[in-house]
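Progress report, Aim 2. The chain analyzed during this reporting quarter is listed below.
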Amino acid sequence: MKRVLYLSFAVSFLIFWNSQEAKAQVGAYNTMVGVTGGTNVGGTVKQFISEQGAIDLLVYNRWKGWVGALLYEHHMDIREFEGLEWYLGGGAHYGIWKDGKGEPPWVYKIDQDYQVFGVDAIVGLEYNINRSNFYVGFYWKPAYNFEDFTTLWEDEAAFTLRYSF
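Predicted C-alpha cells for the chain:
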C-alpha cells in the first residue's frame, strides 16, 4: 500500500517538475485549482503538461472517508462551441476510512480501518466562462478496486468549479 502511495507522489513530483520544460515548449499552459461536488465533495489541482495533456489530482470525501486520485487527462476542443472542451483519461486512486468514522456501503464492521486502491477512468466536459479564468465542468469517474473490495464504483460523478492561473 505504502509503495503505491510513494510511487504516486514520486510520479506526480516528476511530472510537475518537468512541467517547467513543457511551459517553455508550449506557450499556453496553466494550473487550475478548484472544488468538486457531487457524489463526492473535495478539491482538485490540475496542471497542464502539454497543450492537450493535464495531470489532475483529486482529493475528496466520500462515505465519511478520504480518497485521493491522480489522473492523466487528454483535452480536446469542441469546435462548434467556443470555450467548451471534453477530456478523457485514467489513473489511480487510494482511499482510507478510519475505524468507527467511515460508513462505506460495504462495511461489515465499523470498528476497523478500511483501505482501497485501484485504477480509474475519467470522462468530462469543461467550459471556460466568458474567456475568464473560471471554468465550470462535469465529470464521470468509474473506478475499480484491487484491495479488499474488488468491485466497480461506477457511480462517481461531480461538478467542478476551477480557477486558472
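Strands lie at 31-38, 41-48, 53-62, 65-77, 84-97, 114-128, 134-140, 143-145, 152-153, 157-164. The chain has one domain: 2-164. These observations will guide the mutagenesis work planned for the next reporting period.
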